[in-house]
Amino acid sequence: MNVYFVRHGESEGNVKSTHQGENVRLSEGGIKQSQFLAKRLKSKDIKVIYASPSLRTKQTAEVISKELRLSVEYWEFLKERRRPSEIEGLSYDHPKASKIFEITKENQSKADWKYSDDESFNDLLNRAKEVEKRLLEHDDGQNILCVSHIGILIMVILHMILQDKLSPEVFWQFYYHSRLENTGISHLAYTKKNGWKLLAWNDTSHL
What we know:
Blueprint: E1 2-7, H1 12-16, H2 28-41, E2 48-51, H3 55-68, E3 72-74, H4 95-107, H5 121-135, E4 143-148, H6 150-162, H7 168-176, E5 185-191, E6 195-203
Parallel strand pairs: 1-4, 2-3, 2-4
Antiparallel strand pairs: 1-5, 5-6
Helix pairs in contact: 2-3, 5-6
């Protein structure tokens, strides 16, 4: 089985550097990125498309589905990591958002810690496990596309590779020191003999 994980195209929130909710649209640049991505994916013989139901991922997946002539199934499990609702719509450097980020960073090694109505490390990990479980229900030979968001994609991929060795410290270290660009493609292959293998990370050669 081959799974291609892609981050959504550039959103209006990405352009404005604001903390995004679920109803943020793609920017004009994000639509163009999605079109380039769709043409790139035509060579991958993809049979199934799964996507987060958030608007920016939905728009990205719709561009791809039109090019590949496939329908899209939307998974709640692929939604972005839920952040405190207090910061939604605030700029990254807004004093309130910065203070909440500071407090969160001080506690991020605690697997069950939450600031308010956000997700803990374990909450996000449990979603990642569900994504893997559903993917493994497919036949070994299928090529699958998942359109999602940076936080949950990093968690899913790290869980697949590290399994029980994944900790909050490892997740956050990777999260802060890696890049996953808009429409970046990460490719994992699975066999029953060898498990998951990461074959590509953040491939943006289509842009």
